[in-house]
């Protein structure tokens, strides 16, 4: 449900699974196959994004039998922006639906300012949403915001 490519979506799904299982005392480890099975994604893609997340310092891993991955930091310290920015270019300019040479070389297109507003809202959401939102969450539970028990609104697809 994100406006990003499949690799970024896979990374969010994988790291959110690690956040669901986060326990700073037990340090629960999950391997790429366990995460892939839980999220119903291809294991090779999950393994690839976990490697990138590990190189970025967002997750730690241990090799071999009994090895696996876990969050490198408290989920409150990792935002969705931290994850998405590894896989998607966060350009300052919004691509114009009329082509790359329309906005900026003449008058703005009819959607220019609306698209800028949507982009700013999305970046603000990603920067403000930490992985803490996933801690202890189980499938089938209603989604709630981190400050109350009210159900979150469904965001429109962009």
From TrEMBL:
GO terms for cellular component: cytosol. NCBIfam families: rrf2_super. Pfam families: Rrf2. GO terms for molecular function: DNA-binding transcription factor activity. InterPro entries: Tscrpt_reg_Rrf2, WH-like_DNA-bd_sf, WH_DNA-bd_sf. This is Rrf2 family transcriptional regulator. The lineage of its organism: Bacteria, Pseudomonadati, Planctomycetota, Planctomycetia, Gemmatales.
């Amino acid at each position: 449900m994100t406006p990003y490519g499949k690799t970024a979506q896979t990374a969010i799904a994988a790291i959110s699974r690690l956040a669901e299982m986060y326990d700073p005392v037990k340090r629960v480890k999950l391997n790429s196959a366990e995460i892939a099975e839980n999220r119903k994604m291809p294991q090779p893609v999950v393994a690839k994004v976990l490697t990138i997340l590990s190189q970025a310092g967002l997750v730690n891993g241990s090799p071999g039998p009994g090895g696996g991955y876990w969050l490198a930091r408290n989920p409150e310290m990792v935002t969705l922006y931290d994850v998405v920015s590894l896989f998607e270019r966060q350009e300052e300019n919004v691509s114009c639906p009329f082509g790359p040479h329309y906005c900026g070389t003449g008058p703005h297109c009819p959607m220019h300012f609306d698209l800028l507003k949507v982009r700013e809202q999305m970046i603000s959401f990603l920067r403000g949403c930490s992985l803490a939102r996933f801690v202890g969450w189980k499938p089938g539970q209603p989604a709630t915001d981190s400050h109350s028990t009210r159900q979150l609104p469904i965001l429109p697809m962009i």
